[in-house]
Specification:
Protein name: DUF2768 domain-containing protein
Pfam families: DUF2768
Number of domains: 1
Strand content: under 5%
Structural class: mainly alpha
Keywords: Membrane, Transmembrane, Transmembrane helix
Largest sheet: none
InterPro entries: DUF2768 (IPR020076)
Order of helices and strands: HH
Distance between the termini: 12 Å
Oligomer: single chain
Number of strands: 0
Number of helices: 2
Radius of gyration: 15 Å
Helix content: over 70%
Length: 67
Amino acid sequence: MSPAMMKMWISFIAMGMMFLSAVFIYLSRYKFKKRFFRIFTAFVAYGLMIYAGIIMMLLIFSGPTPD
């Protein structure tokens, strides 16, 4: 697999993590009533968002891949 394709798949994984983070935040704020579940899902959501943001920053600042 070429480096460009590898970067593409990694960026898709990071975008999926961002989507999961949005779903977990929605569940945490509007669906869960128990405090433990709200805190746990919010913690996981923010962790996923931070990790996905770091991955995307590394991919963007690594620049284009050579042919």
